[in-house]
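Bench notes, bay 3.
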Amino acid sequence: MSKKIASDIPSYNALQKGEFKDICESLELLFDTNLPKAESKIWHGHPVWFINGNPIVGYSKLKDSVRMLFWSGQSFDEPGLSPEGSFKAAEKRYTSMDQVDTNEIRNWLTKAQIIQWDYKNIVKRRGKLKRLA
């Protein structure tokens, strides 16, 4: 049995089931509405929004939740996000729609446009991050 792969964000969301699909669609709408200058696409198999080629935010369906990831989220100095990985990323996981706080997410999206680390050039800088904004 082959695994279905989405070519665009609506296709990715359509592959999800039940409340996870609702969460993904809600996040897509919030990101599109609040990041009007961002480009969005499937990147490494998951929906991601970019500003000037730099990844800002995305989400992915995990086994038991939907993970929203802010690439520069550890620098937001905001409660509610958990550090993820060895760089500056931070995440929030959702298991039901009632956990999706649109005001909280809008606040983080505002911070994401102001506070950015240069992930686009991380390879060129040999794994070193530089703050952009």
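Next record in the batch:
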Amino acid sequence: MNIEDAFALSASGMDAQKTRLHVISSNLANVESTRTAEGGPYRRKDVIFTSKPLKSSFGEALSSLGNAGYQGVEVTEIMEDQRPFKQILDPQHPDADANGYVLYPNVNPIEEIVNMISALRSYEANVTAFNATKNMALKTLEIGR
């Protein structure tokens, strides 16, 4: 593995976790949103990750034929959670139906906070790996002096 691949692996992980954190923040911000532009309450979103091979040039792509190569990560989809909405009896609410029930988003704040902690830890791990790679590169340059 060359140094550029090591940096690219960490960077792909940080980018994917950053996107995941944005989606989680959106879910938490809309935990009480009963009305959206599409109609109905906000629907929770989740991020789908897929591994991707690291090939920064044509020569590297040719040299990696026959082996899997190094795998980074990318966000391939932001999908909507299909779990049912929460129904709460509140006849005074402007979005209440004829029976007085209001549909609230299918967002569980505790689940989102746990996901946020997981995403933060993954991001921090990628930062640590990036910094370790950077320190190794600097030490290699010092050896040449």
